[in-house]
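Inputs:
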Amino acid sequence: MFLFNPRKYEREHADSRSRELVEKTIAFFEKKGLQKIKEDDQSKVWYQDFLDFIKEEQVFASLLTPAAYGNGDCRWDMWRLSEFNEVLAFYGLCYWYAWQVTILGLGPIWMGDNEAAKKRTAALLRAGGIFAFGLSERTHGADLYSTEMTLIPQPDGTWLARGSKYYIGNGNCAALVSTFGKLADSGDYVFFTVKTDHPNYECVKKIDTSGVRQAYVAEFVLHDYPITAADILSRGKPAWNSSLNTINIGKFELGCASIGIATHALYEALNHAAARILYGRAVTDFPHVKKLFTESYARLTAMRLVAWRAADYLRSASDDDRRYLLYNPIVKMKVTGQGEKVIGLLHEVIAAKGYEQDTYFEMALRDIGMLPKLEGTEHVNMALIVKFVKNYFFGPVDYPEIPRRCEAGDDGYLFRQLTGGLSSVRFPDYRLAYKGNTLANVAIFREQVELFRSLLAKAPPGKAQAEDIDYMLAAGELFTLIVYAQLILENARIYKTQDELLEQIFAFLVRDFSGFALRMILSYENSSAQEEIFRAMIRKPAMDTASFTWVWGAVYALRDQYVMNE
Ligand SMILES: Cc1cc2nc3c(=O)[nH]c(=O)nc-3n(C[C@H](O)[C@H](O)[C@H](O)COP(=O)(O)OP(=O)(O)OC[C@H]3O[C@@H](n4cnc5c(N)ncnc54)[C@H](O)[C@@H]3O)c2cc1C
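Outputs:
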């Protein structure tokens, strides 16, 4: 079975400590139980019990300290981190959020060259500390160039930090807040740390958001907070790079969190529908309900195949292989968007029950939409993705094949990533992913891919179209789906995904691709050559009842396989 199930936990781990960390986390939440999780959520209770558990079991210390700064079982290993995101979000997005912003806060520290700060951080993690990432400012959103937080030089060689930050998770109690700003004299970017218990650190308020309600998302102000060289993590280009490279890691995790939410919601919706009798028959007997579940399962499996494959590339990243820079935003943007889609489909089944206070679903419904918005909206990521189009299709280069990367290892490259030069990132021939695959819907999708390539070669966007972000974002959806399909095919081979499931996955990919092509025709001005190709892209998937029946059987077999402890 490919989906996470706490009752039948199975995943290949390189060592027993890694498995133990997950099993203890499962045990913590199952002991807490759904009712208490919901009560805490509704009362917006700060998750001290979770933080106590993290400290006692040294969970963050083991998982988030690079090998060089921790004891034997510490390493930064994306194989374990990817799944841990899923596990936390499976129980509640607020727990995941405490972990996520800790990772973001740690990024600029592990990426900087301040060795003393790194050692201090490792000790703080051992002491159960959580961290925060002070990047966003109230008026500037994604526009980091406009950052106003400033370090003002003092005659004795120190600085005073002046400015405020907005939407900063853990801003109430983080052991350290990695804060992004500018040096007043040179205008250079800088990353420095501040402590939340310092008198010049004012935690102004908790910004109440409808999701992750238990988290403390803070506005904070630094009132001439004294900074010395010991607090500086990086300056100039390395500081700028730290902000982008930290987000590169963080954005990947959002996709994994989305999978965790959708998985728990799937179990809950299925258990409910299978047990609910209407007009004398189970809700799961309705043909449209079977279809909704089958599609949800196909989309959810695809999300996991994509995210885990992207993790293989993340773990294999080097200055010579930066393909992860395309695959990561795909996980962030597409996987999180698909999570919303799955919850939408499941909500059609669970209906009124999905709003009830005692269900997990009620939280899923509320929280799932946050993931595409955090750490750069879908638009920002799409704007990034389209930079790779040319090299993806034209001028392929050879790379050694990347296997499943489940071995123990410290993914240190993530802390010294190269930045810039996105349009120089190269790819192997995308057609390799299709080699040997004869499934009907895979073949139809492949024809759609070739039409997209011929669009680029024969009728590429004109100057006005290329300058119209709206047009490029819409066209980018087609490209995104092509890369998404590539990652699915690669991982389906590794995980030996059943043909029937793959057939159903490609059925929705063909439909989605057709939908995006139709939108290009209906919503935009195109040349007649472009329109002709967009029209040809609109294809119908093979209506394969056998594969549908098989996947429905696989979904239905999951009923009552997981029910959370009350
Ligand atoms: C619950 C929560 C927790 C958060 N936690 C943290 C945290 O711990 N630390 C932190 O630093 N931040 C945090 N954030 C901030 C979050 O990362 C920002 O919300 C996000 O980066 C987007 O900024 P914005 O929402 O202000 O949108 P804006 O940047 O204001 O965007 C407005 C619109 O412009 C579009 N847009 C902007 N730039 C581009 C572009 N280049 N290309 C195309 N379209 C563009 C956007 O897509 C959007 O439609 C948090 C936010 C929330 C809600």
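Remarks. Residues 192 and 232 are 4 Å apart (CA to CA). The two ends are 24 Å apart (CA to CA).
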